[in-house]
């Protein structure tokens, strides 16, 4: 009976240690989740603030442009020379910044498109189709067949055919 009591006591001790370990891990995980939640909330608040600031800047820029156009159309001749340049300078600067941002976004989009093209070619080569399938898809499309018919005829997925046609349209 002493061995059974000792075994039950040891198992109880192991279970208590395991329960304590699980409770501590749960507490640590909950603490990390709470930190992540606060971080996400902070990021959302910052995003909201930046969105509001951007919207405010857009409104102000629009108002300045409208005022400028109204002043220009009203034939204000009393404005001293150089004032127009002074008034236009901030607008030109903001326009330049917007053009730079647009160029950066276009470059990023081009990079992503190049990666997608590369993956498409790799996928087509891996499937054994390669460029001849792409050319065949384009030929059949030029004959007036729709993507579903082309897919059936070439025993390919309709999505793959549509993707090839989209890339051909982008490049063409």
What low-confidence regions span 5 or more consecutive residues with pLDDT below 50? Answer: 127-131
DSSP strand count? 0
Order of helices and strands: HHHHH
Global geometry: flat
Spatial gap, N to C terminus: 87 Å
**Portion in beta strands:** under 5%
SS content category: mainly alpha
Radius of gyration: 33 Å
Look at the structure and give the mean pLDDT.
79
Give a short account of the largest sheet. none
Instruction: Give the helix level as a range of percent.
Output: over 70%
| Total helical segments | 5
Structure summary:
This protein has 172 residues and is mainly alpha-helical.
Describe the structure.
There is one protein chain. The chain has helices spanning 2-73, 83-126, 130-142, 147-154, 158-171. The N and C termini lie far apart (87 Å). It has a domain at 1-74. With 172 residues, the chain is mainly α. It is flat and about 110 Å long.
Question: In terms of topology, how is this protein built?
Answer:
Layout: H1 2-73, H2 83-126, H3 130-142, H4 147-154, H5 158-171
Search tags:
single chain; 172 residues; mainly alpha; flat
